[in-house]
Structures are given as structure tokens and as C-alpha cells.
Amino acid sequence: TQINLDIALNCSPETPCEGSQYLPTMFPELKTPLQMSPSIDDKVTLSWIYPDPNFNSKFCMATGKIVDAAGKPLRGVNVIASRVDDGDSLTRSDARSMVSGVLYPGCLGDSAYYLYGFVPGKKYHVTYEPLAEQYAGHSGFEPLDQPPSGFASGTIEAENGETVIGCEAGNTVIPMKTVTIDVKNTCLFSRQTTNTNTSTAPGSAGGCSFMRLQ
After folding, report:
1. In terms of DSSP H, where are the helices of the chain?
2. Of 67, 130, 209, 214, which has the fewest CB atoms closer than 10 Å, so is most exposed?
3. Residues 6+ apart with CB under 8 A from 96
4. What's the pLDDT tens digit per position in 160-178?
5. Closest CA to 73 of 179, 194, 196
6. What is the Cα gyration radius of the chain?
7. 92-101 pLDDT, tens per residue?
8. Strand pairing partners for 179?
9. What is the C-alpha to C-alpha distance for residues 6 and 130, in angstroms, rounded to an integer?
10. What is the model's pTM?
């Protein structure tokens, strides 16, 4: 996960830095011993993969897609939802992320993202950003070894046009507007396959991906 990247870039195990308590366990690098304690982002992701029956009923989620200028799925864009209006500490700590298309390996599937664990009655701001270049390739983020780059970060609006979103009760899905980013789509220059249940190896990163069983 690439949560609080701006803090992480100034941290190292030998150099304590302000805000290191906000770095998630699953950040690509060990930056601080404080990462041994799972962040909200870590807990939300684990709860999504291994859900308690009450997980969805108590919390809400937001979902949308990222596409290129031609409307094709754009994989490898980081999407983050952070709490707002409750102080900087909660904005940093109550954050969760997902990379577009991470549910599928390589260039298979779509570019959807799912942001879980929204607390009812609280407000969140959803943004997108490039993946840091140092975390691409070996041991990097799936779904691509060369994720799209060279574009500016931006805000994602809900389908109703709101830039700050939330829900009043659990088990609510907040649909987000599809984001179009005019950038080179590396999937179109990577491997392609017509069989959605199989994959060939050349275009895959060295990291892990979630795979939805068909």
C-alpha cells in the first residue's frame, strides 16, 4: 500500500521522522519499527479478504474505475480515501487505498477499485496518484511492472458530484465517477490475452496481486 508516501520518502530505519506512526505495515519498504503495528489501511484490507459477518454491515465502501483517454481500463493507478474534517491525525491514520485493477494479474480484467471501511457519519476525500517509480518492477505493485506515470494527482468525485463523501449507515455502496487520465496505457504495450482465465508471464511484476476467481 502507498499510504502517506510524502512522509515515507523522508523516513528511514536509521533516521526517525515526523509522522512515521502513520505508515502502514504493508508499505513497500520498512521505514520505521512503528510499521510493526497494523494501520487502519492494513486492518481494512485484511477484513476485506477475511471478512467477519459484521464487516460490511458496520461499514460502507466506495467503488469506481480508472480509464485512459480511449476509455480502456487503466491499471496501476493508486486510489486513496482519507477522512476529513476531524483533524490531520485522523486524515493521516483513517486512510485506505487500492491500486486500480489489482484484483487481476497482468493486463487481465478491468480497472476497478474498491475502498472499504468507511465509518458511517464520517466524511472522506478520495484522490488518485501515480505509483512511486521506486516501487515498480521487482517486488512492486501488481498489476503491472511499468504502471502509468507522468500524470498529476487529482480528486475523484462521487457520481452525484460531491468531492467529500460519506454514508449514514453501514452496508452502503458509494459509486464514484469514472476517472479519465490521458496517459500512455502500458497495458496496451504489454502482454495481451483473449482468455480471461489464463495468463502468460512476461508482463507481470514481481509483487503480489489479488485474483478474483471466475
Report:
1. 5-8, 40-49, 55-58, 88-93
2. 214
3. 3, 40, 41, 44, 45, 80, 81, 115, 116, 117
4. 999 999 999 999 999 999 9
5. 179
6. 17
7. 999 999 999 9
8. 66
9. 13
10. 0.87
